[in-house]
Specification:
Blueprint lengths: L1 H12 L5 H16 L5 H12 L1 H13 L6 H14 L12 H13 L5 H21 L5 H9 L4 H7 L1 H18 L5 E3 L2 E4 L2 E4 L7 H17 L4 H30 L9 H26 L23
Antiparallel strand pairs: 1-2, 2-3
Helix pairs in contact: 3-7, 4-7, 5-8, 5-11, 6-7, 7-8, 8-11, 10-12, 11-12, 11-13, 12-13
């Protein structure tokens, strides 16, 4: 009899759980699942894209109708592959993305008065500030940011705005290189004049595509080697100057063919371009390899450009 009384008293001390309590418990469990380290790295970037669906839709239209060779999709694919391969597990999921929030507020404020290119660049910045802590264990990844910026359909705009200045620069570099070979070549605008012969640096030789490909290689190396922002900027500057010089070398080599000084088959144009680009690419590979092998370059995250082995504490 006493055991039954004790059971009843014990049973009456526990409040009965209603259907509403069970529903709240289920919702909290689902919410915790969404905030788990396995779901948040995928969910949050998707939410950013969904919230910026107008910019994403305009980007898709630009890539489809404005871009000619759709190289932007190559940059997007490379960014995705490197992000997956370079993923570092984080101890704490960042709960505060202050920088990304500020960029989003800037997008909202400037949306009515900014062109699609600026909106795409701001979205690329937002995605970098969201993906870097969740996937790469860094507060910011300059390599990923550069690849996402190159994924914007800027090439047609650059060809229109920067085509002539780059062609003129290429002509001056080629004239200087040819003068070393004892040829009195003068650069006048985009033309190379020698002994009454004029060879023009046309639009395909402006180097826009070579610069785009070289910068993509630069930022991919920076992301793969986990370089910091400072060393990524230094590598990009060196690569840009090297690509300009390589384009001048290509124009100088093609001058011998176009001026009739030597005879070469038709495929020599593409071969010379590939060789000049390969020289710059090998130079960047050699430089970044020395940076990584040098022990003085290693350090904690955000200092000497190379990521530390300690787990990220972003957002704590």
């Amino acid at each position: 009899m006493s055991e039954e009384i004790s059971k009843r008293s014990h049973g009456s001390s526990e409040p009965a759980r209603t259907t509403e309590d069970l529903a709240v418990t289920g919702l909290s469990a689902r919410f915790r699942m969404l905030l788990s380290p396995a779901v948040m790295p995928v969910l949050l970037p998707l939410l950013v894209l969904v919230c910026h669906w107008r910019i994403v839709h305009g980007y898709a239209l630009q890539v489809r109708y404005v871009s000619t060779q759709r190289w932007e999709l190559i940059a997007l694919g490379l960014a995705g592959v490197l992000t997956i391969l370079m993923r570092r597990p984080t101890v704490h999921i960042p709960r505060r993305f202050l920088s990304a929030t500020l960029v989003i507020l800037l997008q909202v404020a400037l949306f009515p008065c900014t062109p699609p290119e600026v909106r795409g660049a701001l979205l690329a910045t937002t995605l970098t500030l969201v993906i870097a802590p969740l996937w790469l264990g860094r507060r910011y990844s300059a390599g990923l940011h550069g690849i996402l910026l190159l994924a914007q359909p800027f090439v047609p705009l650059f060809q229109f705005q920067l085509g002539y200045p780059l062609r003129a620069t290429c002509a001056k570099l080629a004239a200087g290189i040819l003068s070393l070979g004892l040829l009195d070549v003068t650069a006048r605008g985009t033309a190379l004049e020698w002994s009454g012969t004029s060879v023009f640096v046309d639009a395909p030789c402006s180097g826009i595509r070579m610069l785009w490909s070289g910068m993509l290689l630069t930022f991919a190396l920076a992301m793969a080697l986990d370089l910091g922002a400072r060393r990524t900027a230094l590598l990009a500057g060196i690569g840009f100057c090297g690509l300009l010089l390589a384009n001048g070398l290509r124009a100088a080599a093609l001058f011998y063919i176009e001026a009739g000084l030597i005879e070469a088959p038709a495929w020599a144009h593409e071969c010379i371009g590939l060789v000049s680009f390969a020289l710059v690419g090998l130079g960047m590979l050699w430089g970044t390899r020395n940076w990584v092998r040098n022990p003085s370059n290693s350090g904690p995250m955000g200092q000497n450009g190379v990521h530390s082995e300690e787990p990220s504490q972003c957002g704590t």
